[in-house]
């Protein structure tokens, strides 16, 4: 590439900024992913506020009192419809299919908000390998292809979680779809999540998440399809590491943004910390919590 190819002086300020981003894949992926995470949290926060405002007194989820003090902003009809489908106690006019679709989107937003930040080390490692390859003159696949593969796994998982939400709600006594599930069902969710933290599968998946370099380097390719599949592989390891933690959301209210933020923060810390101490502490807390919930509901 010649010096003239780098000269964007003939463009306006916006054009120069766009050209600079297009030439820097790492900057582009940071901007796109940062915007996606912020947008996901904004939408989830709006759903949480709607849920807190409409929840029946006496079955408040943690943080509802604080959420009720936050202003509800006027939103487009499409978003209002989305919120209604997520919060409705039974399928609306659109039927169970529309409600299931809304729940899939909601769970996917939760995955983007909590799991995408913890995938930062994996994405950064890929960008570093890509920079080295680019310096050598080798073809490089844009990191957003890797991210797309990663998120495709969580999109599939979101469909499973949405189906589980419908099943749990069908047998639970909650009024709204996203109310906390109490009693034996809530305790079972916490018990499964707690026990999984001590499992060998959890340890194996967490190890892969902590050390993505060997997988990315050994499977390096200049073909977009292979990089997409590589992203899917990383997504599977992440899902294997974190799926049980998402079950906690059933016990605290699926759209509890405070617990969602806590899970996202824990996941980020867990993947950055050597050893398994945070994982075992979390597992012990969940098991004690499950036992206490069973005792209280007995």
UniProtKB/TrEMBL annotation:
It comes from the Bacteria. InterPro entries: PpoB2-like (IPR018688). The chain crosses the membrane at residues 27-49, 100-123, 144-171, 177-198, 236-269, 281-297. This is Predicted metal-binding membrane protein. It comes from Mesorhizobium muleiense. It holds the Pfam family PpoB2. Keywords: Membrane, Transmembrane, Transmembrane helix.
């Amino acid at each position: 590439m010649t010096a003239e190819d780098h000269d964007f002086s003939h463009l306006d300020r916006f054009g120069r900024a766009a050209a600079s981003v297009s030439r820097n894949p790492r900057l582009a992926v940071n901007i796109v992913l940062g915007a996606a995470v912020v947008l996901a949290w904004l939408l989830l926060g709006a759903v949480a506020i709607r849920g807190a405002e409409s929840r029946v007194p006496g079955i408040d989820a943690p943080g509802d009192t604080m959420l009720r003090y936050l202003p509800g902003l006027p939103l487009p009809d499409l978003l209002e419809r989305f919120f209604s489908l997520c919060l409705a106690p039974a399928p609306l006019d659109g039927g169970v299919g529309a409600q299931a679709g809304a729940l899939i989107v909601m769970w996917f937003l939760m995955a983007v908000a909590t799991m995408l930040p913890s995938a930062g080390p994996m994405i950064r490692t890929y960008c570093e390998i890509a920079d080295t390859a680019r310096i050598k003159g080798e073809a490089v696949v844009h990191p957003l292809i890797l991210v797309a593969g990663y998120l495709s796994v969580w999109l599939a998982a979101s469909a499973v979680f949405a189906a589980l939400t419908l099943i749990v709600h069908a047998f639970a006594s909650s009024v709204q779809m996203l109310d906390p599930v109490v009693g034996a069902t809530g305790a079972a969710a916490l018990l499964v999540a707690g026990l999984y933290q001590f499992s060998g599968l959890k340890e194996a998946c967490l190890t892969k998440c902590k050390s993505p370099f060997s997988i990315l380097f050994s499977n390096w390719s200049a073909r977009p399809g292979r990089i997409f599949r590589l992203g899917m592989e990383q997504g599977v390891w992440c899902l294997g590491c974190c799926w049980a933690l998402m079950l906690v959301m059933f016990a605290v209210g699926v759209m509890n943004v405070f617990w969602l933020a806590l899970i996202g923060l824990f996941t980020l810390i867990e993947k950055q910390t050597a050893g398994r101490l945070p994982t075992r502490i979390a597992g012990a807390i969940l098991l004690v919590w499950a036992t206490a919930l069973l005792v209280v509901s007995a």
